[in-house]
Amino acid sequence: MILKIKKFLSRNIYPLFFRLYPLKKNKIIFSSFGGRNYSGNPKIISEKLHEIRPDFEIVWLINDDVGVELPSYVKKVANNSVLSAFHLYTGGIWVDDSRKTIFYKKRKKQVYFQTWHGTPLKKIEFDATDKLAKHYLDYGVKDSQSLNYLLSGNEYSSKIYESAFRVSKEKIWNIGTPRNDSLVESTKATSHFFDKKEIKILFAPTFRDQPENNGFPQLARLGIENLKQFFIENGQNLEILLKFHPNVSKVMAKDTAINTILEDQSIGLIDDHIKIDDLFEEVDLLITDYSSIFFDFSLLNKPIILLNHDEEEYKNERGFYVDLDELPIPKAKNAEEIIAIFNSKKKELLEGPEKLLEKIGNFENGTATNTVVEKIIKISESMN
Predict the structure, then answer these.
(1) Cβ pair 203, 181 in contact under 8 A
(2) In b/e form, how buried is each residue of 314-352, taking b as 16+ CB within 10 angstroms?
(3) Residue 10: C-alpha distances to residues 19, 140, 142, 145, 330 (Å)
(4) What CATH number was assigned to the domain covering residues 2-177+365-382?
(5) pTM over the 0.85 mark
(6) How far is Cα 303 from Cα 264, in angstroms, rounded to an integer?
(7) For helices 40-52 and 368-382, what crossing angle results, to 10°?
(8) From 3.40.50.12580, 3.20.20.140, 1.10.10.10, 3.40.630.30, which CATH number describes the 184-360 domain?
Protein backbone atom coordinates (compact mmCIF):
# COMPACT_ATOMS: atom_id res chain seq x y z
CA MET A 1 0.00 0.00 0.00
CA ILE A 2 2.84 2.40 0.88
CA LEU A 3 4.53 1.73 -2.46
CA LYS A 4 1.29 2.40 -4.32
CA ILE A 5 0.93 5.73 -2.54
CA LYS A 6 4.53 6.65 -3.39
CA LYS A 7 3.97 5.81 -7.03
CA PHE A 8 0.76 7.82 -7.16
CA LEU A 9 2.38 10.89 -5.61
CA SER A 10 5.56 10.73 -7.74
CA ARG A 11 3.62 10.29 -10.96
CA ASN A 12 0.56 12.48 -10.36
CA ILE A 13 1.19 15.09 -7.68
CA TYR A 14 4.88 16.02 -7.29
CA PRO A 15 5.38 16.78 -11.01
CA LEU A 16 2.78 19.54 -10.79
CA PHE A 17 5.18 21.50 -8.61
CA PHE A 18 8.53 20.44 -10.02
CA ARG A 19 7.56 21.28 -13.59
CA LEU A 20 7.63 24.92 -12.46
CA TYR A 21 11.30 24.73 -11.49
CA PRO A 22 14.01 25.77 -14.00
CA LEU A 23 15.61 23.03 -16.10
CA LYS A 24 19.24 22.13 -15.47
CA LYS A 25 20.52 21.50 -18.97
CA ASN A 26 23.59 19.42 -18.02
CA LYS A 27 21.66 17.15 -15.64
CA ILE A 28 20.95 13.84 -17.42
CA ILE A 29 18.39 11.39 -15.97
CA PHE A 30 18.97 7.69 -16.60
CA SER A 31 16.83 4.63 -15.94
CA SER A 32 16.88 0.99 -17.00
CA PHE A 33 14.02 -1.52 -16.91
CA GLY A 34 11.84 0.70 -14.74
CA GLY A 35 14.53 1.22 -12.11
CA ARG A 36 15.28 -2.49 -11.70
CA ASN A 37 18.92 -2.29 -12.71
CA TYR A 38 21.99 -0.30 -13.77
CA SER A 39 22.35 -1.85 -17.19
CA GLY A 40 21.78 -1.89 -20.92
CA ASN A 41 22.03 0.99 -23.35
CA PRO A 42 21.58 3.66 -20.65
CA LYS A 43 24.55 2.27 -18.69
CA ILE A 44 26.81 2.35 -21.75
CA ILE A 45 25.72 5.90 -22.60
CA SER A 46 26.08 7.07 -19.00
CA GLU A 47 29.64 5.80 -18.70
CA LYS A 48 30.75 7.22 -22.03
CA LEU A 49 29.14 10.58 -21.26
CA HIS A 50 31.04 10.83 -17.97
CA GLU A 51 34.26 9.86 -19.73
CA ILE A 52 33.89 12.71 -22.22
CA ARG A 53 32.13 15.28 -20.04
CA PRO A 54 32.79 14.63 -16.33
CA ASP A 55 31.19 18.00 -15.55
CA PHE A 56 27.73 16.67 -16.42
CA GLU A 57 25.47 15.65 -13.54
CA ILE A 58 24.41 12.04 -13.96
CA VAL A 59 21.33 10.86 -12.04
CA TRP A 60 20.09 7.26 -12.00
CA LEU A 61 16.59 6.34 -10.83
CA ILE A 62 16.86 2.97 -9.07
CA ASN A 63 14.24 1.02 -7.12
CA ASP A 64 14.77 0.86 -3.34
CA ASP A 65 15.19 -2.93 -3.29
CA VAL A 66 17.94 -3.01 -5.94
CA GLY A 67 21.33 -3.34 -4.29
CA VAL A 68 23.36 -2.43 -7.34
CA GLU A 69 26.75 -0.75 -6.98
CA LEU A 70 27.05 2.48 -8.96
CA PRO A 71 30.11 4.53 -9.95
CA SER A 72 31.03 7.25 -7.46
CA TYR A 73 30.10 10.03 -9.89
CA VAL A 74 26.50 8.81 -10.22
CA LYS A 75 23.76 10.31 -8.05
CA LYS A 76 21.54 7.39 -7.09
CA VAL A 77 17.93 8.39 -6.45
CA ALA A 78 15.15 6.14 -5.21
CA ASN A 79 12.61 5.53 -7.94
CA ASN A 80 9.03 6.63 -7.20
CA SER A 81 10.19 9.15 -4.59
CA VAL A 82 9.89 12.90 -4.17
CA LEU A 83 13.48 13.29 -5.35
CA SER A 84 12.93 11.09 -8.41
CA ALA A 85 10.06 13.33 -9.55
CA PHE A 86 12.17 16.43 -8.86
CA HIS A 87 15.13 15.22 -10.92
CA LEU A 88 12.97 13.80 -13.70
CA TYR A 89 11.20 17.10 -14.32
CA THR A 90 14.21 19.37 -13.79
CA GLY A 91 16.79 17.38 -15.75
CA GLY A 92 17.48 18.53 -19.29
CA ILE A 93 17.64 15.07 -20.89
CA TRP A 94 16.12 11.63 -20.20
CA VAL A 95 17.69 8.32 -21.28
CA ASP A 96 15.79 5.07 -20.78
CA ASP A 97 15.52 1.55 -22.23
CA SER A 98 11.92 0.80 -21.25
CA ARG A 99 8.64 2.65 -20.83
CA LYS A 100 8.44 5.45 -18.30
CA THR A 101 5.31 5.22 -16.17
CA ILE A 102 4.57 8.93 -16.23
CA PHE A 103 1.24 10.69 -15.89
CA TYR A 104 2.57 13.96 -17.34
CA LYS A 105 4.66 13.98 -20.47
CA LYS A 106 8.05 15.67 -20.44
CA ARG A 107 8.38 19.45 -20.45
CA LYS A 108 8.65 21.23 -23.79
CA LYS A 109 12.41 21.85 -23.71
CA GLN A 110 13.36 18.48 -22.27
CA VAL A 111 14.71 15.83 -24.67
CA TYR A 112 13.98 12.12 -24.28
CA PHE A 113 16.16 9.34 -25.74
CA GLN A 114 14.36 5.99 -25.76
CA THR A 115 16.95 3.26 -26.50
CA TRP A 116 14.67 0.22 -25.98
CA HIS A 117 16.25 -3.13 -25.07
CA GLY A 118 16.37 -5.39 -28.07
CA THR A 119 15.11 -6.33 -31.52
CA PRO A 120 11.52 -7.54 -31.07
CA LEU A 121 10.51 -11.04 -32.09
CA LYS A 122 7.39 -11.16 -29.92
CA LYS A 123 4.78 -8.43 -30.25
CA ILE A 124 5.31 -5.43 -27.97
CA GLU A 125 3.57 -2.32 -26.64
CA PHE A 126 0.59 -1.08 -28.71
CA ASP A 127 0.92 -4.10 -31.01
CA ALA A 128 0.10 -6.27 -27.98
CA THR A 129 -2.83 -4.39 -26.45
CA ASP A 130 -4.65 -7.67 -25.74
CA LYS A 131 -1.75 -8.92 -23.61
CA LEU A 132 -0.79 -5.81 -21.63
CA ALA A 133 -2.52 -4.10 -18.70
CA LYS A 134 -4.60 -1.03 -19.52
CA HIS A 135 -2.82 1.15 -16.95
CA TYR A 136 0.54 0.27 -18.54
CA LEU A 137 -0.75 1.21 -21.98
CA ASP A 138 -2.16 4.46 -20.60
CA TYR A 139 1.30 5.37 -19.33
CA GLY A 140 2.65 4.32 -22.72
CA VAL A 141 0.61 7.05 -24.40
CA LYS A 142 2.41 9.76 -22.40
CA ASP A 143 5.74 8.03 -22.91
CA SER A 144 5.31 7.96 -26.69
CA GLN A 145 4.22 11.59 -26.74
CA SER A 146 7.37 12.48 -24.80
CA LEU A 147 10.11 10.72 -26.73
CA ASN A 148 12.26 12.59 -29.24
CA TYR A 149 14.67 9.85 -30.33
CA LEU A 150 13.85 6.15 -30.49
CA LEU A 151 17.03 4.21 -31.26
CA SER A 152 16.90 1.32 -33.72
CA GLY A 153 19.49 -1.28 -34.65
CA ASN A 154 17.91 -2.45 -37.89
CA GLU A 155 15.32 -1.72 -40.53
CA TYR A 156 13.07 -4.53 -39.30
CA SER A 157 12.80 -2.91 -35.84
CA SER A 158 12.23 0.56 -37.27
CA LYS A 159 9.13 -0.58 -39.13
CA ILE A 160 7.78 -2.27 -36.02
CA TYR A 161 8.40 0.73 -33.77
CA GLU A 162 6.10 2.99 -35.79
CA SER A 163 3.04 0.98 -34.77
CA ALA A 164 4.32 -0.47 -31.48
CA PHE A 165 5.13 2.98 -30.08
CA ARG A 166 2.71 4.96 -32.23
CA VAL A 167 5.38 7.40 -33.34
CA SER A 168 6.31 8.88 -36.69
CA LYS A 169 9.30 7.48 -38.54
CA GLU A 170 11.04 10.85 -38.09
CA LYS A 171 11.49 10.06 -34.39
CA ILE A 172 13.16 6.71 -35.08
CA TRP A 173 16.94 7.08 -35.10
CA ASN A 174 18.58 4.43 -37.27
CA ILE A 175 22.06 4.49 -35.77
CA GLY A 176 22.37 1.14 -33.98
CA THR A 177 22.29 0.52 -30.23
CA PRO A 178 25.09 1.29 -27.74
CA ARG A 179 25.06 -2.07 -25.97
CA ASN A 180 25.83 -3.78 -29.29
CA ASP A 181 28.84 -1.62 -30.19
CA SER A 182 31.22 -4.03 -28.46
CA LEU A 183 29.74 -7.00 -30.33
CA VAL A 184 30.30 -5.32 -33.67
CA GLU A 185 33.91 -4.62 -32.74
CA SER A 186 34.62 -8.23 -31.65
CA THR A 187 36.65 -10.76 -33.60
CA LYS A 188 34.46 -12.96 -35.75
CA ALA A 189 35.48 -16.52 -36.52
CA THR A 190 32.68 -19.07 -36.99
CA SER A 191 34.51 -21.21 -39.52
CA HIS A 192 36.52 -22.86 -36.72
CA PHE A 193 33.48 -24.10 -34.80
CA PHE A 194 33.79 -27.70 -35.96
CA ASP A 195 37.58 -27.68 -35.55
CA LYS A 196 37.73 -26.51 -31.93
CA LYS A 197 38.59 -28.98 -29.18
CA GLU A 198 36.57 -27.13 -26.55
CA ILE A 199 33.00 -26.12 -27.41
CA LYS A 200 30.90 -23.92 -25.15
CA ILE A 201 27.15 -23.67 -25.73
CA LEU A 202 24.84 -21.10 -24.15
CA PHE A 203 21.28 -22.36 -23.71
CA ALA A 204 18.96 -19.43 -23.01
CA PRO A 205 15.25 -20.32 -23.12
CA THR A 206 12.67 -17.61 -22.57
CA PHE A 207 9.72 -17.99 -20.18
CA ARG A 208 6.24 -19.40 -20.56
CA ASP A 209 3.22 -18.04 -18.74
CA GLN A 210 2.49 -21.45 -17.24
CA PRO A 211 5.12 -22.24 -14.54
CA GLU A 212 5.09 -25.98 -15.28
CA ASN A 213 6.29 -25.29 -18.83
CA ASN A 214 9.51 -23.66 -17.63
CA GLY A 215 12.76 -25.37 -16.69
CA PHE A 216 12.63 -29.15 -16.99
CA PRO A 217 10.57 -29.35 -20.24
CA GLN A 218 13.15 -27.18 -22.03
CA LEU A 219 16.12 -29.09 -20.63
CA ALA A 220 14.51 -32.37 -21.64
CA ARG A 221 14.20 -31.15 -25.24
CA LEU A 222 17.84 -30.04 -25.25
CA GLY A 223 18.98 -33.59 -24.56
CA ILE A 224 22.22 -32.82 -22.75
CA GLU A 225 23.54 -36.39 -22.68
CA ASN A 226 22.97 -36.85 -26.41
CA LEU A 227 24.75 -33.58 -27.21
CA LYS A 228 27.73 -34.42 -25.05
CA GLN A 229 28.06 -37.83 -26.62
CA PHE A 230 27.95 -36.33 -30.12
CA PHE A 231 30.81 -33.94 -29.38
CA ILE A 232 32.85 -36.65 -27.66
CA GLU A 233 32.55 -38.79 -30.79
CA ASN A 234 33.65 -35.75 -32.79
CA GLY A 235 36.75 -35.41 -30.60
CA GLN A 236 35.44 -32.30 -28.83
CA ASN A 237 34.67 -31.50 -25.22
CA LEU A 238 31.32 -29.79 -24.59
CA GLU A 239 30.50 -27.30 -21.84
CA ILE A 240 26.95 -26.02 -21.48
CA LEU A 241 25.94 -22.78 -19.79
CA LEU A 242 22.30 -22.28 -18.84
CA LYS A 243 20.70 -18.85 -18.49
CA PHE A 244 17.04 -18.79 -17.53
CA HIS A 245 14.88 -15.73 -18.12
CA PRO A 246 14.75 -13.45 -15.03
CA ASN A 247 11.04 -14.32 -14.65
CA VAL A 248 12.05 -17.97 -14.23
CA SER A 249 15.53 -18.06 -12.68
CA LYS A 250 14.56 -17.37 -9.05
CA VAL A 251 12.04 -20.21 -9.08
CA MET A 252 14.43 -22.59 -10.83
CA ALA A 253 17.22 -21.82 -8.35
CA LYS A 254 15.01 -23.32 -5.61
CA ASP A 255 13.94 -26.36 -7.66
CA THR A 256 15.89 -29.33 -6.26
CA ALA A 257 15.07 -31.57 -9.25
CA ILE A 258 16.48 -29.01 -11.69
CA ASN A 259 19.56 -28.45 -9.56
CA THR A 260 20.18 -32.19 -9.35
CA ILE A 261 20.09 -32.43 -13.15
CA LEU A 262 22.45 -29.48 -13.51
CA GLU A 263 24.88 -30.94 -10.99
CA ASP A 264 24.79 -34.43 -12.53
CA GLN A 265 25.36 -33.02 -16.03
CA SER A 266 27.94 -30.38 -14.94
CA ILE A 267 25.81 -27.56 -16.32
CA GLY A 268 26.80 -24.03 -15.35
CA LEU A 269 23.75 -22.06 -14.16
CA ILE A 270 24.20 -18.33 -14.75
CA ASP A 271 22.46 -16.11 -12.21
CA ASP A 272 20.68 -12.83 -12.87
CA HIS A 273 23.61 -10.69 -11.76
CA ILE A 274 25.47 -11.62 -14.95
CA LYS A 275 24.04 -9.98 -18.05
CA ILE A 276 23.48 -12.44 -20.85
CA ASP A 277 25.29 -10.34 -23.45
CA ASP A 278 28.40 -10.51 -21.25
CA LEU A 279 28.44 -14.25 -21.98
CA PHE A 280 28.34 -13.88 -25.75
CA GLU A 281 32.08 -13.42 -26.17
CA GLU A 282 33.00 -16.66 -24.40
CA VAL A 283 30.48 -19.03 -26.01
CA ASP A 284 30.66 -20.67 -29.44
CA LEU A 285 26.99 -21.39 -30.08
CA LEU A 286 23.67 -20.01 -28.87
CA ILE A 287 20.62 -22.22 -28.50
CA THR A 288 17.41 -20.39 -27.63
CA ASP A 289 13.74 -20.68 -28.43
CA TYR A 290 11.89 -17.38 -28.70
CA SER A 291 14.26 -14.97 -26.98
CA SER A 292 15.14 -12.02 -29.20
CA ILE A 293 18.74 -12.15 -27.95
CA PHE A 294 19.61 -14.20 -31.03
CA PHE A 295 19.38 -11.00 -33.09
CA ASP A 296 22.14 -9.45 -30.95
CA PHE A 297 24.20 -12.65 -30.90
CA SER A 298 24.19 -12.77 -34.70
CA LEU A 299 26.44 -9.68 -34.71
CA LEU A 300 29.29 -11.95 -33.56
CA ASN A 301 28.73 -14.16 -36.60
CA LYS A 302 28.59 -17.20 -34.33
CA PRO A 303 26.13 -20.04 -35.03
CA ILE A 304 22.59 -20.06 -33.64
CA ILE A 305 19.98 -22.80 -33.32
CA LEU A 306 16.32 -22.17 -32.45
CA LEU A 307 14.84 -24.93 -30.28
CA ASN A 308 11.17 -24.25 -30.90
CA HIS A 309 9.29 -27.42 -30.00
CA ASP A 310 6.14 -25.56 -28.89
CA GLU A 311 6.09 -22.85 -31.55
CA GLU A 312 2.35 -22.88 -32.25
CA GLU A 313 1.41 -22.71 -28.56
CA TYR A 314 3.90 -19.95 -27.87
CA LYS A 315 2.80 -18.00 -30.93
CA ASN A 316 -0.78 -18.06 -29.63
CA GLU A 317 0.44 -17.01 -26.19
CA ARG A 318 2.69 -14.14 -27.27
CA GLY A 319 2.37 -13.42 -30.97
CA PHE A 320 5.31 -13.05 -33.39
CA TYR A 321 6.24 -10.33 -35.86
CA VAL A 322 7.77 -12.82 -38.25
CA ASP A 323 7.25 -16.43 -39.25
CA LEU A 324 10.19 -18.33 -37.77
CA ASP A 325 10.42 -20.43 -40.92
CA GLU A 326 11.34 -17.26 -42.80
CA LEU A 327 14.47 -16.76 -40.70
CA PRO A 328 17.75 -18.16 -42.10
CA ILE A 329 18.52 -19.83 -38.77
CA PRO A 330 18.38 -23.64 -38.32
CA LYS A 331 15.48 -24.86 -36.20
CA ALA A 332 15.03 -28.04 -34.16
CA LYS A 333 12.46 -29.57 -31.84
CA ASN A 334 14.73 -31.92 -29.86
CA ALA A 335 18.32 -33.13 -29.40
CA GLU A 336 18.13 -35.49 -32.35
CA GLU A 337 17.28 -32.64 -34.70
CA ILE A 338 20.02 -30.49 -33.19
CA ILE A 339 22.55 -33.22 -33.93
CA ALA A 340 21.13 -33.56 -37.44
CA ILE A 341 21.93 -29.87 -37.96
CA PHE A 342 25.55 -30.48 -36.90
CA ASN A 343 25.77 -33.42 -39.29
CA SER A 344 23.98 -32.23 -42.41
CA LYS A 345 23.34 -28.48 -42.15
CA LYS A 346 26.79 -27.11 -41.36
CA LYS A 347 26.65 -24.54 -44.15
CA GLU A 348 23.23 -23.27 -43.05
CA LEU A 349 24.42 -23.13 -39.44
CA LEU A 350 27.56 -21.13 -40.18
CA GLU A 351 26.04 -18.78 -42.75
CA GLY A 352 22.85 -18.15 -40.75
CA PRO A 353 23.95 -15.12 -38.69
CA GLU A 354 25.20 -13.12 -41.67
CA LYS A 355 22.05 -13.89 -43.67
CA LEU A 356 19.91 -12.91 -40.69
CA LEU A 357 21.59 -9.50 -40.46
CA GLU A 358 21.01 -8.99 -44.18
CA LYS A 359 17.35 -9.94 -43.81
CA ILE A 360 16.64 -7.48 -40.99
CA GLY A 361 18.64 -4.64 -42.56
CA ASN A 362 21.33 -4.24 -39.91
CA PHE A 363 22.32 -0.70 -38.81
CA GLU A 364 24.83 -1.70 -36.13
CA ASN A 365 28.33 -0.43 -36.97
CA GLY A 366 29.92 0.04 -33.56
CA THR A 367 29.48 3.82 -33.31
CA ALA A 368 26.06 4.21 -31.66
CA THR A 369 27.40 5.16 -28.22
CA ASN A 370 29.57 7.99 -29.48
CA THR A 371 26.78 9.24 -31.74
CA VAL A 372 24.27 9.42 -28.87
CA VAL A 373 26.73 11.03 -26.46
CA GLU A 374 27.72 13.66 -29.03
CA LYS A 375 24.02 14.43 -29.58
CA ILE A 376 23.38 14.73 -25.82
CA ILE A 377 26.26 17.17 -25.43
CA LYS A 378 25.16 19.20 -28.43
CA ILE A 379 21.55 19.40 -27.22
CA SER A 380 22.60 20.33 -23.70
CA GLU A 381 24.89 23.10 -24.91
CA SER A 382 22.16 24.53 -27.13
CA MET A 383 19.52 24.70 -24.36
CA ASN A 384 18.59 28.20 -23.25
Answers:
(1) no
(2) beeebeebeebeebbbbbbeebebbbebbeeeeeebbeb
(3) 12, 17, 15, 19, 48
(4) 3.40.50.11820
(5) yes
(6) 27
(7) 60
(8) 3.40.50.12580
Dist CA 114 CA 168 (whole Å): 14
Per-domain residue ranges for the chain?
2-177+365-382, 184-360
12, 85 in Cβ contact below 8 A? no
**Distance set, CA 320 to CA 16, 313, 325 (Å):** 40, 11, 12
Helix (H, G, I), strand (E, B) or coil at 363: coil
Residue 160 has a pLDDT of 98
User: Using CA atoms, how far apart are residues 291 and 23, in angstroms rounded to an integer?
Assistant: 40
Q: Which amino acid is at 67?
A: G
Tens-digit pLDDT profile for residues 276-304: 777 898 899 999 999 999 999 999 999 99
